[in-house]
């Protein structure tokens, strides 16, 4: 087995890297295959999709704006209901009185 710089690997070095990783003898480190990480390629890395910073920022902005709109709508609904309730209570407390007007003779 050859390493990248062309020197023969000893049997001990050939099995140093796990999961198909390649030993870089100069740096004494492993070049891991896809989905593996770690100093000896011993950790399996699950496939994950992470959005770019621009997309993540846009998503965060949309969520924040949506939450602000919901809070504003809740405040408006609360205020309208409070005003209607106050109007109903004032009408109940002050019943309208009708006066009879005497006809002119």
Short structural summary:
This protein has 2 domains: 1-49, Laminin (Ribbon), CATH 2.10.25; 50-94. Helix content is 43%, strand content 10%. It has helices spanning 11-14, 53-93, and strands at residues 22-24, 29-31, 36-37, 43-44.
Task: Describe this protein with a few key phrases.
4 strands; 105 residues; two-stranded antiparallel sheet; 2 domains; 43% helix; disordered N terminus; Laminin; rod-shaped
For the biggest sheet, the summary is: 2 strands, antiparallel
Q: Poorly predicted ranges (pLDDT <50, ≥5 residues)? A: 1-8
- The residue-averaged pLDDT reads 79
CATH superfamily of the largest domain: Laminin
Pattern of helices and strands:
HEEEEH
Strand content: 5-15%
Give the CA-CA distance, first to last residue.
127 Å
Please work out how many helical segments DSSP would assign.
2
Helix content: 40-55%
Q: Any idea how many domains?
A: 2
Query: Could you say what the CATH architecture of the largest domain is?
Result: Ribbon
Query: Which geometry do the CA atoms define?
Result: rod-shaped
Q: What Rg is obtained from the alpha carbons, in whole angstroms? A: 38 Å
Per the CATH scheme, the topology name of the largest domain is Laminin
SSE class: mainly alpha
Topology:
Layout lengths: L10 H4 L7 E3 L4 E3 L4 E2 L5 E2 L8 H41 L12
Antiparallel strand pairs: 1-2, 3-4
Protein name: EGF-like domain-containing protein
Keywords: Disulfide bond, EGF-like domain, Membrane, Transmembrane, Transmembrane helix
């Amino acid at each position: 087995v050859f390493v990248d710089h062309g020197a023969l690997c000893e049997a001990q070095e050939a099995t140093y890297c796990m999961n198909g990783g390649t030993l870089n003898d100069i740096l004494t480190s492993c070049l891991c295959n896809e989905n593996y990480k770690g100093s000896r390629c011993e950790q399996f890395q699950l496939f994950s999709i992470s959005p770019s910073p621009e997309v993540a920022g846009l998503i965060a902005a949309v969520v924040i704006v949506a939450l602000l709109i919901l809070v504003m709508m809740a405040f408006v609904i609360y205020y309208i209901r409070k005003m209607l309730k106050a109007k109903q209570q004032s009408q109940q407390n002050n019943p309208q009185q009708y006066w009879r007007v005497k006809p002119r003779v």
